[in-house]
Amino acid sequence: MQPVIRLEHIFKTYGSDETEVQALQDVNLIVETGEYCAIMGPSGSGKSTAMNVIGCLDRPTSGCYYLDGVDVAGLSDAELAHIRNRKLGFVFQQFHLLPQLSAMENVMLPMVYAGIPQNERKERAAAALTRVGLANRLNNRPNQLSGGQQQRVAIARAIVNRPVLLLADEPTGALDSHTTQEVLQIFAELNSSGITVVMVTHEPDVARQTRRIVWFRDGQVLHDHLTPDDLTQMTIAA
Amino acid sequence: MDIFESTKMAVKTLTANKLRSTLTMLGIIIGNASVITMVGVGQGAQRYASEQFESLGPNVLFIIPGSNESRNRTFDLPKTLTLEDAKAIAAQVPTVSAVAPQLQTQQPVTYSNKRTSSLIVGTTPEFLPVRDFEVARGRFFTDLDVQRNTQVVALGSDVAKNFFGDADPIGQQIRIKNISFQVIGVMESKGAFLGNNQDDAVYIPLSTMSSRITGNTSPYGTEVTFISVNARDEASVNAAEFQLNNLLRLRHKITTEDDFTVRTQKDALEIVGNVTGALTLMLAAIAAISLFVGGIGIMNIMLVSVRERTHEIGLRKAIGASQQDILVQFIIEAVILSAIGGVIGTVIGTSGIMLVSAVTPLKAGVSTTAIAVAVGVSGGIGLFFGVFPARQAAKLDPIVALRSA
Ligand SMILES: Nc1ncnc2c1ncn2[C@@H]1O[C@H](COP(=O)(O)OP(=O)(O)O)[C@@H](O)[C@H]1O
Ligand SMILES: [Mg+2]
């Protein structure tokens, strides 16, 4: 079976000449289907850059990226948009919900771009919101919801097109410890239902609840498959 | 994503931000309203002026001093037209049924302590049939009055009303340029001609006018301002024009350029058509500029809106919107705004025209062409000026856009 993510010698350079920043320097990473994986590392180590490449929001400067067996480099912008729509789900630290839309409408948005008919959109959006525990908040606007509830709407939106890969960049960064646990609970459930989850986090307690920890430094994968003990030492050192 | 979904999304966005949408439409509304009003007013002016000349009747010809070329050169026209010319025309041009020379100027007119500045028209009794005027009360002056330079006057209805109210003016003395005149008649109200109130005028014998009011400085005879002529019938107008030209060229011993112009009703209508056509075009051009400015307004506010919505655009792209989806969404927003603006502008413009028709003599018409063009053009303007901001939106890098939050 193909790995979901296969990064081979990925480089990403921002700017040019004097302002040049090597955000990724020879990143190699394989994530198999069904994994639940945390990416950690100091600020500026290239975690978000790697997530953007993995999420097809950005193209690497060099190197090969196979997503679900497909070499992404050869795809057009429209094809990448299609992949983001069908194969990927994004969860961001700042939720990024559209304020003028209700929870339902926000969750329906990816299906609009997928060309799914209105009736099915409604059914699936309601189902996704029910799955994240918001069955009674379908018609609320984002500003009528708590932070944890907004992040759950965002998760519903990310999974509504049944992606193979869920990408979350510091999804609990803006949440308190109680709602963090709620969100992690949902991620764990999604993962056990077969969705591959890759999450960037700063918090060791969050990372410990995943099944694999990848450590980034200076644009490289410094350690992989860290044990919880390693992690304790790493975070003391960092 | 299909057009229907894009449109729904655009409507949703536009209604979510009503103030911004309204402001964006404002330019188009004003532009459209002004195109429709301006063109309507221009065409109304055209119709009004044409009707005025048509009301003179098809048989009338005017002889005015100077050639067309010399009138373009100078305002100081030769005093070549005379009372004697008018007499010669009456005596010698067979296709002419009546001739009325007019010598006119603006002068103060007083009665006891009342004073106006009115048009003083010195003419002959044939003025009545030629210009289709009628006397309401008393009488007009006769050929005898003209021969004897009598100091008699027929008052325009407004002057009579102004001086005498409901009292009988006949037999009273008024003063023109401080010379005493006896009122012998009051004219039937005639209304305005090309904006000049013909009822705010007084009519005296041409000879009296020339000798007592203006003084004659022409070396050729008794100077007149212009001569109105009636052809016998409509069929003889062309012949009359020809004969008038011949006679006057002979009398004025013309060898090169004419020092007079004979103008038929048709000529006058043509000139009116040219002048008011140019006016309409100018008004339409001014209005078109405001429509264009409205388009730039749309572009302006949409560019701001793209900036404001960077974050939204980034998110839409992250969850699968293609560049084309974003492009189409923004263009549809622009087209909807400008089309609605176009319709509102049309309603306002049409009301404006109705108002103009109600309060002025310009019977401004609602031009369906103007409406079609204005609405079509504003839709096109929305498209044209929407494309640039829409492309800006479509090209946004989703990572940068999301980070801008
Ligand atoms: N768009 C960009 N332009 C220039 N430099 C960037 C850009 N994005 C990230 N970087 C730089 O790349 C490096 C890695 O950034 P990032 O991937 O955001 O790190 P992390 O998410 O681990 O904190 C940093 O030095 C950052 O300043
Ligand atoms: Mg980051």
Which keywords apply here?
A: 238 residues, alpha/beta, Rossmann fold, 6-stranded mixed β-sheet, 4-stranded antiparallel β-sheet, globular, B: 405 residues, two-stranded antiparallel ribbon, 12 strands, binds adenosine-5'-diphosphate, binds magnesium ion
- How many strands, what sense, and barrel or not for the largest sheet of chain B? 6 strands, mixed, barrel
| E-strand count of chain B | 12
Basic shape of chain B: elongated
Q: What gap, in angstroms, lies between the N and C termini of chain B?
A: 26 Å
Strand order of the largest sheet of chain A: 6-7-8-3-9-10
The DSSP helix count of chain A reads 8
At CATH's second level, what is the architecture of chain A? Answer: 3-Layer(aba) Sandwich
SSE-based structural type of chain B:
alpha+beta
- Residue runs with pLDDT of under 50 for 5 or more positions of chain A: none
Q: Provide the succession of SSEs of chain B.
A: HHEHHEEHEHEHEEEEEHEHEHHHHH
Helix content of chain B: 55-70%
Mean pLDDT of chain B: 87
Describe the secondary structure blueprint for this structure.
The complex is a heterodimer of chains A (238) and B (405).
Chain A: E1 5-14, E2 21-31, E3 36-40, H1 47-54, E4 62-67, E5 70-71, H2 77-86, E6 88-92, H3 103-114, H4 118-131, H5 147-159, E7 165-169, H6 177-192, E8 196-200, H7 204-207, E9 212-217, E10 220-223, H8 228-237
Parallel strand pairs in A: 3-8, 3-9, 6-7, 7-8
Antiparallel strand pairs in A: 1-2, 1-4, 4-5, 9-10
Helix pairs in contact in A: 3-4, 3-5, 4-5, 5-6
Chain B: H1 3-16, H2 18-55, E1 60-65, H3 68-73, H4 83-92, E2 96-111, E3 114-123, H5 127-131, E4 135-138, H6 143-148, E5 152-155, H7 157-164, E6 173-176, E7 179-187, E8 192-193, E9 196-197, E10 201-205, H8 206-214, E11 226-231, H9 237-251, E12 260-264, H10 265-308, H11 310-318, H12 323-359, H13 368-395, H14 398-403
